[in-house]
Design goal:
The protein is α+β, with helices and mostly antiparallel strands. The protein has 9 helices and 17 strands. Among the domains are: 87 residues, PmbA/TldD superfamily (PmbA/TldD fold, 2-Layer Sandwich); 208 residues, no CATH class.
Length: 439
């Protein structure tokens, strides 16, 4: 479905809402297709196609709000969806903070952020790529004896958002990926690990062979498992997990948690929340960016800004509703963050290991052991024991614990080993000290 057709449907929805007596309304319509091809042990295993479409409608009758959605874009379904939203609004209590975004803050221009790069890969071609990926993983080490498969995915979508302030905008976008997961075996020990690559443009992904080799290497190196002593040690979160730490920080400074007073970073604007080495920017207009957008889920214009500078919190992440609850102005983050870039302190991965000396490299965390109110952090983990800057052996069934406020302030280095084409770009993060409990 073309963008212009979706934009026209948004106007149809808003017209119906006006006819039903809504004082204001907003709607988003989307359409997308995808193809996933997976192989296992050299044989084609699954071919999946998806064709998704949807409409969501929010109507306001003064300060009463109703919401409804549907996966049917037919004229009758649009009519029914608006009616459902209007009916819901009749039974909701008035909320003085709800409503559309301030018209003055809506995006006036929508630049081309180069997010649309269709990958017309056939099933046969995708299967061949997946087979090469899996074969590369299996060839890394003779102890890799089994596979959970390799997959090639490509998707193509378009969406349009409009509201009764006159804003209408949207754009097409694509996402593609290659991944592999394999199992290594030695005696009675079995370990699995995986790797992946993804991008808006298939030409910017790692090669299938590189992804496979990385998956194989990661699985094989986990076989030499030994125990360690419980204690307090430096902990290095590899880049893929460091992104999760940044995600936790973002949650703590997001409007919903702030106005509910369920954040360990309440009233922290302008204060030192982290080590002076932590610098985070939000860059919504990166070309081909994983989370790039000219406007947020309310049509508010996005802009480049500094979130954390030298460890000092410079801004929250707010949509219109949470901003009103806090007596502030939306930051264009309804729907989340747009490309967070964490500045590296310059060390590559090997230099981070050397800086840590003796401690724990964490490559996997388990469970959801975070108290967002207090910041207390406790997760099951697996990874590698490091001595004198060298990885010695794998460890598993351990628990790492601290408090996020302490972890942020004890961040001593941020690596240059950044995973590209992801929404939160950071290298591995070295924390000065955490409690490590062995089983």
């Amino acid at each position: 479905m073309e963008l212009e057709a979706l934009k026209q449907l948004t106007q149809d929805v808003l017209k119906i809402a006006r006819q039903k007596g809504a004082s204001s309304a907003e709607t988003e319509l989307s359409y997308g297709t995808g193809q996933s091809v997976s192989v296992r042990m050299g044989e084609l295993e699954n071919i999946e196609y998806n064709r998704d479409k949807g409409v969501s409608v929010t109507v306001y009758f003064g300060q009463r709000k109703g919401f409804a959605s549907s996966s049917d874009l037919s004229p009758q379904a649009l009519q029914d969806t608006v009616e459902a939203a209007c009916n819901i609004a009749q039974f909701t209590a008035a909320d003085p903070y709800c409503g559309l975004a301030d018209p003055a803050l809506l995006a006036k221009e929508i630049p081309d952020l180069d997010l649309y790069h269709p990958w017309n890969v056939s099933v046969d071609e995708a299967a061949e790529i997946a087979k090469r990926c899996e074969a590369a993983a299996m060839q890394v080490d003779k102890r890799i004896t089994n596979s959970e498969g390799a997959s090639v995915y490509n998707s193509d979508g378009v969406f349009a958002y409009a509201n009764s302030h006159g804003f209408v905008g949207g754009y097409p976008s694509t996402r593609h990926s290659i991944s592999a997961s394999v199992i290594a075996e030695s005696g009675e020990t079995m370990q699995r690990d995986y790797w992946y690559t993804n991008a808006r443009d298939a030409a910017e992904m790692e090669s299938a062979e590189a992804v496979g080799r990385r998956a194989g290497e990661r699985a094989a190196r986990r076989l030499d498992v030994r125990s360690i002593k419980t204690g307090r040690y430096p902990v290095l979160f590899e880049a893929s997990l460091a992104s999760g730490l940044i995600g936790t920080l973002v949650s703590a400074i997001s409007g919903g948690n702030l106005y509910r007073k369920s954040s360990f970073l309440l009233d922290s604007l302008g204060t030192q929340i982290a080590s002076g080495i932590l610098n985070i920017q939000e860059l919504p207009h990166l070309k081909k960016g994983s989370a790039s957008s000219a406007f947020d889920n309310e049509g508010v214009a996005t802009r480049d800004r500094v979130l954390v500078q030298n460890g000092v919190l410079q801004g929250y992440m707010l949509g219109s509703y949470s901003a009103r609850k806090l007596g502030m102005q939306t930051t264009g983050n309804a729907g989340g963050a747009h490309n967070l870039i964490v500045a590296s302190t310059g060390e590559d991965f090997d230099a981070l290991l050397n800086k840590m000396g003796t401690g724990l490299l964490v490559t996997e965390v388990l469970g959801h052991g975070l108290n967002m109110v207090t910041g207390d952090y406790s997760r099951g983990a697996a990874g590698f024991w490091v001595q004198n800057g060298e990885i010695k052996h794998a460890v598993e069934e351990i628990t790492i614990a601290s408090n996020m406020k302490d972890m942020l302030k004890q961040t001593v280095a941020i690596g240059s080993d950044i995973i590209p084409n992801v929404a939160r770009q950071t290298g591995s993060i070295l924390i000065e000290q955490m409690t490590v409990a062995a089983s």
